[in-house]
Amino acid sequence: SLGLPSFQKRSSSLQNSNQSFEQEKFCLSLTFLTLEQRSYCRTNPKIFSIINHSLRMAIDECQYQFRNQRWNCSLFNQPEIFRKLIQRKTPETAFIYALTSAAVMHSIAKACSKGELIECGCDKSQPELPTAIMFKHHSNTITSSLNDGFEWGGCSDDLKFGRNISISFIDKQETFITRRQIVRMVNLHNNEAGRKIVERNVQLTCKCHGVSGSCTLRVCWRTLPDFRLIGSELRTKYSSATQVRLNRHLNILKPRKNTQKIFNTTDLIHIQMSPSFCEKNLQLGSLGTQGRQCNLTMNEPGSCSVLCCDRGYETIVDTIEEECDCQFHWCCEVRCQRCKKKIEKHFCK
After folding, report:
1. From its phi and psi, is residue 38 left (phi > 0), alpha (psi between -120 and 50) or beta?
2. CATH of domain 293-348
3. In what helix (H) or strand (E) does residue 47 lie, and over which residues does it extend?
């Protein structure tokens, strides 16, 4: 096994030595690949280029979702500290694993329907009945009742291919990296939770065909929503993540305490509790919150009372210039004055 499925179609071979050099350089730059995956990258650079983009998308989404929290997902450019965080198997780790797995699946499925990969295309499968999940975020282009008949058509995002790549790329890492059984089981569970969140957010997009705006024929296809929606749902799952233990007799994961809720396949799970992230502790993967900008709203995300961990904050007054007293002059010009304005910025001590 090369760490990814064996495709019948292959990316076209590069035509000259310069292209081969760039391809080799790109594959070597992906330091997170196993040796087998790097070998496969050389013959399938387009797939790995999309995977690389999806990892960047996951980082951006993580930093957006936690932008106002003590942990703001800012360690990706510091590999050694990030590794410390990942090793601890906290709710933050669970979120990162699920988000990354979801991002790969989402990006590949979208790339297939856009015609960016020769290994896949539109998903031609036709489910017998549309599920309630499909209608959860149905497109505004649907004007008739959802109970009316329709025909499958258009170009559906290829979720099956996206799922296969995500499993082969993300889950494959566990075979080489993770030795402890409970850690491997937790990581694989969170990977799968991310993929299931993608699947349950599938939208049904429809287009009406008919004379004079009538909807005599409705053609529908399945599309994935913007990745922000996936990130937001996983952020909610993070807030209710379940701490687990391994039942060695049954070889299954169970809630660590009997009072904790039973988790399902879309819930996030973790082994250790999160640190406070208030103080800098590189061994725990925490940069602390000293110097973080905050606001004076009470007990809300991003507020000084939450971010500064009772250490207080410093206030700096900045002077900025902005346009003011704008007036319209005939014809056709808007003229503005330049005004100075003082603003206060607050930073955690």
Report:
1. alpha
2. 3.30.2460.20
3. helix 45-65
